[in-house]
């Protein structure tokens, strides 16, 4: 039997009446996969009633995850291109979240933006470039004839790599790429729909939650339970209780979430918590830290959690989602390397612990089925194992490019390979990620461009415009932001760091580790005036760039 070539074909073929998806924020009753097929077929015909045709883009920014999932799957089935986006939680004047949504609507060229019922009135004057509606508008729309089935090379999804960026990049994923990728992930995870049960709190505007926990569940018809990200943050232990109650076997989270769950245990693990069924504890979307996972395993071992369940992985939106994953049941593999060799030279040799400045790296495993991973030098030539270079990827599941940006697409996808902009090396066939060529900052699994953070900090009274640098700051289990700036005058106002911190936290929801105020003229820049972020980080680490309350 020929395998389906599109997500639309897969959705039409769903037939299980006994397994399904349970969206607990909407109620305890599951939506069976057979019912999901009927519901998405009905909704697919109603896009025409909203004036949306196959190929049109629709931004989905609802907070109700059941509504978002149904609208997204119905769009894929109709050949309409869904654009998941971070739903605004703050609507006040000048809300950065609303501005970010407006930028995505404009960049996508969207026909309509579907939001929650409570958001419609608040967004009417937000300057969105498209109509605003709700899922109920789709449900109530007059159905048209069955839409033509999309082809394998038609766009199935438009993923924006960062909701915060002033110049958002939309990654175009085809129907074929999604169908191929979800099946490859199912193989890598060794999913058995009779045995496995998924549990997720991950946001569906992020590729790990959307593809890894929704689309893979749909493709394999594996029962999965969902709670909202806000519910997880309010009650992290409640999520583990859900895993225990439904005997969940597969769940993913960024590194910070494992740290959060570890810190929430104050008086010992509850005696009725049973995590013994959890066989795939995925960790990705941000750097995986060995110490965080070890502490989690130690704390939750009394509840039956096994360290062998850890499943580190590496991916990016431009590859649809995953590139490399660990082997199920193998757990976490680490390698201790010469930390100076990773930054100053090209070779990363395994180094005995305790000799020189070392760094423990976590393996991200091997390439997915049908995927090839290589490490190359600046000329694109393959490098041998244990040598740091740029990670490049090839395979049938790569995204096809950036929406409406042929120049950036040509720079990123070259000669059939995706140049990730990430650095790493291969050791015994497994990938170890060491850093980034680009300056992207990943905080709690979400991408942020430094210049967006810098732009907000520059608007604070007392900050010298054009003289702010945002850097990633390691905080153990997670990443925050360190801001380095020059003030307009010396001495700088004593409350300037606090006001900058509040502005960034309110504007982007990004945690700020500290704000470093330095003398005018000391911020590292190129000859053309561009910020030298990596050089600034090196100067701070070495102590050669220090705060001052007066001009030098």
Detailed description of the structure:
Helix 11 (255-263) packs across helix 12 (290-300) and helix 15 (450-458) crosses helix 16 (496-508). The chain has 552 residues and is α/β, with parallel strands linked by helices. It folds into 3 domains: 7-234, ANL, N-terminal domain (Rossmann fold, 3-Layer(aba) Sandwich); 313-394 and 407-436, Luciferase, domain 3 (Roll), CATH 2.30.38; 449-542, GMP Synthetase, Chain A, domain 3 (2-Layer Sandwich). Mean pLDDT is 89; it is low at 343-347. Helices cover 30% and strands 25% of the residues. Strand 24 (441-443) and strand 25 form a beta hairpin. The strands form 8 sheets. It has a 5-stranded mixed beta sheet with strand order 11-12-13-14-17. Keywords: Ligase. This is AMP-dependent synthetase/ligase domain-containing protein. Belongs to the ATP-dependent AMP-binding enzyme family.
Catalogue the unreliable spans. Answer: 343-347
Mind telling me the CATH superfamily name of the largest domain? ANL, N-terminal domain
DSSP strand tally: 28
| The first-level CATH class name of the largest domain | Alpha Beta
How would a textbook summarize the main sheet? 5 strands, mixed
The percentage of residues in β strands lies in 15-25%
Determine the structural class based on helices, strands and strand pairing: alpha/beta
Provide the CATH architecture of the largest domain.
Answer: 3-Layer(aba) Sandwich
From the N-terminal CA to the C-terminal CA, the straight-line distance is 75 Å
- Integer count of domains: 3
Per CATH, what is the topology of the largest domain? Rossmann fold
Pfam families: AMP-binding
Keywords: Ligase
InterPro entries: AMP-bd_C_sf (IPR045851), AMP-dep_synth/lig_dom (IPR000873), ANL_N_sf (IPR042099), FAAL/FAAC (IPR040097)
Protein name: AMP-dependent synthetase/ligase domain-containing protein
């Amino acid at each position: 039997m020929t395998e389906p070539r599109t997500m639309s074909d897969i959705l039409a073929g769903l037939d299980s009446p006994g397994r399904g998806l349970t969206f607990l924020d909407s109620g305890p009753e599951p939506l069976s996969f057979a019912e999901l097929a009927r519901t998405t077929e009905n909704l697919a015909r109603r896009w025409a009633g909203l004036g949306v045709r196959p190929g049109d883009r629709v931004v989905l920014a609802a907070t109700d995850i059941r509504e978002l999932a149904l609208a997204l799957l119905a769009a894929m089935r109709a050949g309409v291109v869904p654009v998941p986006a971070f739903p605004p939680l703050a609507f006040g004047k000048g809300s950065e979240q609303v501005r970010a949504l407006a930028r995505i609507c404009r960049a996508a060229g969207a026909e309509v933006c579907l939001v929650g019922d409570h958001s419609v009135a608040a967004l009417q004057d937000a300057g969105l470039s498209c109509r605003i509606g709700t899922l109920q508008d789709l449900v109530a729309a007059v159905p048209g004839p069955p839409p033509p089935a999309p082809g394998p090379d038609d766009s199935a999804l438009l993923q924006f790599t960062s909701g915060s960026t002033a110049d958002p990049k939309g990654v175009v994923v085809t129907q074929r790429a999604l169908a191929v990728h979800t099946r490859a992930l199912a193989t890598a995870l060794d999913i058995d729909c009779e045995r496995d049960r998924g549990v997720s709190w991950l946001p569906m505007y992020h590729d790990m939650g959307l593809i890894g926990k929704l689309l893979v569940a749909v493709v394999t018809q594996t029962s999965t339970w969902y709670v909202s990200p806000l519910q997880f943050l309010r009650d992290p232990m409640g999520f583990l209780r859900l895993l225990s109650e439904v005997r969940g076997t597969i769940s993913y989270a960024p590194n910070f979430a494992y740290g959060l769950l570890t810190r929430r245990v104050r008086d010992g693990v509850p005696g009725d918590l049973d995590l013994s069924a959890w066989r795939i504890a995925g960790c990705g979307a941000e750097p995986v830290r060995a110490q965080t996972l070890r502490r989690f395993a130690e704390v939750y071992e009394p509840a039956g959690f096994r360290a062998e369940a850890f499943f580190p992985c590496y991916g990016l939106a431009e590859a649809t989602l995953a590139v490399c994953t660990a082997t199920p049941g193998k757990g976490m593999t680490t390698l201790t390397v010469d930390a100076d060799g990773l930054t100053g030279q090209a070779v990363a040799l395994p180094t005995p612990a305790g000799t020189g400045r070392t760094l423990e790296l976590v393996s991200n495993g091997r390439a997915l089925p049908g995927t090839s991973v290589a490490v190359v030098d600046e000329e694109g030539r393959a490098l041998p194992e244990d040598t740091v270079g740029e990670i490049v990827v090839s395979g049938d599941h790569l995204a096809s490019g950036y929406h409406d940006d042929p120049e950036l697409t040509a720079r990123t996808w070259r000669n059939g390979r995706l140049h990730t902009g990430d650095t790493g090396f291969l050791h015994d066939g497994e990938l170890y990620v060491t850093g980034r060529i680009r300056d992207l900052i990943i905080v709690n699994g979400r991408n942020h461009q430094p210049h967006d953070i810098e732009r907000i900090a520059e608007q604070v009274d007392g900050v010298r415009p054009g003289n702010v640098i945002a850097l990633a700051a390691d905080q153990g289990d997670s990443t925050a932001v360190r801001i380095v700036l020059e003030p307009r005058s010396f001495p700088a106002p004593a409350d300037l760091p606090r006001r900058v911190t509040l502005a960034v936290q309110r504007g982007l929801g990004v945690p700020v580790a500290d704000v470093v105020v330095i003398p005018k003229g000391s911020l590292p820049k190129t000859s053309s005036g561009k910020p030298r972020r990596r050089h600034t980080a090196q100067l701070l680490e070495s102590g050669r760039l220090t705060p001052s309350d007066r001009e030098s």
